[in-house]
Amino acid sequence: MSRKVLAFAASNSSVSINRQLVEYAASLIDDAEVETLDIHDYEMPIYRHDREEAGGIPQLAHQFLARVGEADMLLISFAEHNGLYSAAFKNLFDWCSRIGRNVWQNKPMVLLATSHGPGGAARVLKLAEEAFPIFGGEVRGTLSVPLFGEAFDSDAGVLRNPEQVAELKALLAKL
């Protein structure tokens, strides 16, 4: 029986480099059924306590958490906006956390991040690595990919550096 992987980019962009990275990483997991989500399918009004009290928690938050619950493992790649999560991801997370603190439902996960700059979105990756266990994430490892345009062959959909590929495969084996 194959394992079910839920993969998504925590990005605001419709042409996300983090989506390219997470799809590539998911393709490297043997014997897995991969579901790749677009977090924009779970777009909700900006979280506000008053809004929650007036109308409750949107059904989309419940649907996202149901997808997490159906998965055996999670693979997430983060865009970094001023050192933090993208607004789209943070809002989805905020709504989901109002349903319960165990957002990640004790799922094993590998966290990735990339950017066009030399930092490789490492700050947001570190933030997620430290915060996700508080919310039920079993972080098995992280990988930052700096200088995405040089590191990733978008036409072929693969990382160019064999050492990065080996590091990524080693992380995915921990799932």
CATH-derived architecture: 3-Layer(aba) Sandwich
Mean pLDDT: 96
- Major β-sheet profile: 5 strands, parallel
Tell me the overall shape: globular
Helical content class: 25-40%
**CATH fold label:** Rossmann fold
For the record, the CATH class is Alpha Beta
Q: How many runs of DSSP E, i.e. beta strands?
A: 7
Cα-based radius of gyration, to the nearest Å: 16 Å
Classification by helices and strands: alpha/beta
Q: Note the total helix count.
A: 7
N-to-C SSE string, H for helix and E for strand: EHEHHEHEHEHEEH
Number of domains: 1
Residue fraction in strands: 15-25%
What report would you give on this structure?
With 175 residues, this protein is an alpha/beta fold. The chain has a single domain (3-173), classed as Rossmann fold. 39% of the residues lie in helices and 24% in strands. The protein has helices at residues 17-27, 49-55, 59-70, 87-99, 122-131, 148-151, 162-173; strands at 3-10, 32-38, 73-78, 107-114, 137-145, 152-153, 158-159. Strands 2-1-3-4-5 form a five-stranded parallel sheet, with helices on both faces. Strands 6-7 form a two-stranded antiparallel ribbon. The longest helix is centred in the middle third of the chain and has 13 residues, at 87-99.
